[in-house]
């Protein structure tokens, strides 16, 4: 474990060094079947049930490329402004590991399907940074090892390991950036913003579940420091096991402060794979290898080359949906939002929710108001991100509709929302269960008004004398008597009518 | 009766079974008896599936009785090389590392055979992982050549070729990575065909070298080989390298070829395959074959394919490279042998001990060569250069086929050598595949047919016929009368030999009917 003394103060790091980033993101495609066989591609499931001779690497088995995965890879490449290879192959990456059934991974090596692209990334303050994409290539996922009996759950010290090959052969796209220099003190933020932008893009393309917590989106962060004095590139480390957007930022920041401390003490950074620890926010070295790994790549002889026709590529370009940044630009124009408001909505993760609420029938202003005020407060008090609140945009739109139709008052609407958040079902279910409907029966209201007037004869007299503002006291009393389930405006009308 | 059954061709057996004259059960039992009687000496089979064979035979007999249309070889027994997976039936690939493994699935070839009603007698011996030219590298002991039990039956498919020569089966399946169908065919006086790469599915063929491996038919006549070829060939969506094209009309070609007219057939004699290292008796037999082809009307000329000289070294980089990767999966984790798992050792140690114990010396040698050849810094010099040679060889073939319909050569430089003779000299062993390797590197079809006996040692000699990709039928015979190609070539040679008692060693050798020479010692 790295102690604090071994870290350099962040501001000092920035004073002395330029951080250089490189980000590798693995995306599990949510195709129906695996990359090279017909097994179901599903998260979870009883271990070793989604397997066949091919994904178990049984002797004699052969791979066949999943066409849908190639299509997804090309669409991702196009959305990342990449060139699409006219001809490319798979290769074998050879190394022994028990969760890899063939002891080689079928991957692309020097002939990726997509290359030379870019992605514009918006930072919290609205600044846009263009991240250049080196390549996006196809490969297969490995199985999962569960190390039993050790203290850490890692292979060190484990008594035995269990293997689940359900994930073996799941299609992966690896997206690799070029070196990202010049981000200075914002390097950690840039790393997070890039992964966020990529996640939103992949979601819009509908190619992956993009769940970092389930491993369908995984990020490896490469970090090195270049001394400002010399400008020479530093030795990089690759940090794995970065399982949330926040962790991406923390891992980069930690590595910067750690590497700077190593350099400052006269040491040199070791080129190695490091492991991010969520709880401590620190990185630690992976298992030391005695020799440099040589993967002995060579073209996969069991597969034929992939040569996507230009017609197909253009056809796929036509299927690209409105991409997140295009959508934002359109919404900003349509709703007439200032840059600042738009940015706040994006940063609060509210924009997509508001758009979805509008698509479900609400007006933009109403939808915005719910998400940035009441719902944002609820998320805040529950300590979750806005999109993780247990309410859907459609449910919010329904609540707004009920308010507009007079079925709910704003106060009742908040109670309904609370009910939905508590898991009591849909808005209508909550209204039913909690009996929250506005009392719209005039005779009931008239009775309540008469009772209130009788209870406060002096106030009643004032109203009759023309002091209309005095009606407020009667309305208040009626609202209290009906436990807030009356429409105050209607009550007021009845009060005035009774006293005229 | 038994003698008739075990000496008949597959075509003859099929006709009689389908007409109801004899039953498949009788035929199958006759071959099972023959195996029981002779395999103690030959060791062609690693596993005999008596029950499975008889069950399949009964089913075919029922179908015939019921008047159902059955496929051309339904009811005929076959010996399957132990490199093809068979559901629930042991598949060892001649290796200790897969001892006891019961595959949960059938290879496509196995499935097609079963669907065609072919009776699979069992699994035949082979060099471990198909690496070898003598079947001496089998972890389960060598197979003996029925012509002379002290000699090798060729390899890697020595079990399949010996089973044919010993009349244990009229049909067999082999796989050919550098000659493993053709060279055993040549040294046992049988027919062996390596189809165009991609012509027969590799799904379920336990890989040695993926870009070279190709399954094919083995038989005692060219027509039988053609009948089997059509059953196992064809596009398979489970094999990406399988060719999505119609199966070449090999049966029609073989039948057509029986007219024996080779007028106008342009035959190129590959000049690279002669000279030093070639046994004189083999060359004389080859010359005799060339003369005979001329008599039949073929136009014969020499053709030089200079890059063929580099085929052997290129092969011994490509095949080991691919095998070093293909064989990585044998690591004790999921199936097969597991050594040293006593609770004290790490995964890596168990993997290492298992591979140490489970692989034989030749397999280890090739894994090491391949691992080295693919290493960073060596890749371009070795694997990269070998792939360039491969391109040159393909170009040499293409150029030659501009002027010739087929190319011919001896199948292998010598007749069957003695068991143990080359065991400690890998280079001498590798040279057995000198003439057969180019067709694997180019992916083109090639066949070995018996061309007679060497006058020095009385052992069979093979004639290799090579054709362009997807023109497999040219080797069997031309389907067009107007322009006969290899018409009759294979068939005539083969039947001609049969007329003189070949490949029925018993008659040629003057033995009594049913006596397979070599089993009783040579006269």
Structure description:
- Chain A is of the alpha+beta class.
- Chain A is built from 16 helices and 14 strands.
- In chain A, 39% of the residues lie in helices and 18% in strands.
- In chain A, the strands form three sheets. In chain A, strands 2-5-6-9-1-10-11-12-13 form a nine-stranded mixed sheet. In chain A, strands 4-3-14 form a three-stranded antiparallel sheet, with no helix packed on it.
- Chain B is 39% helix and 11% strand.
- Chain B contains 19 helices and eleven strands.
- An eleven-stranded mixed sheet of chain B has the order 1-3-2-4-6-5-10-11-9-7-8, sandwiched between helices.
- The longest helix of chain B is centred in the C-terminal third of the chain and has 24 residues.
- The two termini of chain B are 26 Å apart.
- Chains A and B meet through loops of A and helix 11 and helix 12 of B.
Question: What quaternary form is this?
Answer: heterodimer
Number of domains of chain A: 3
Q: Work out the largest interface and the residue count of each chain.
A: A-B, 29 and 44 residues
Rg of chain B (CA only) = 22 Å
Number of helices of chain B: 19
Count of domain modules of chain B? 1
Proportion of β residues of chain A?
15-25%
Following the backbone from N to C, one meets helices and strands of chain A in this order, namely HEHEEEEEEEEHEEHEEEHHHHHHHHHHHH
- Helical/strand content category of chain A: alpha+beta
Mean pLDDT value of chain A: 91
Name the average pLDDT of chain B.
90
Give me the side-by-side strand order of the main sheet of chain A: 2-5-6-9-1-10-11-12-13
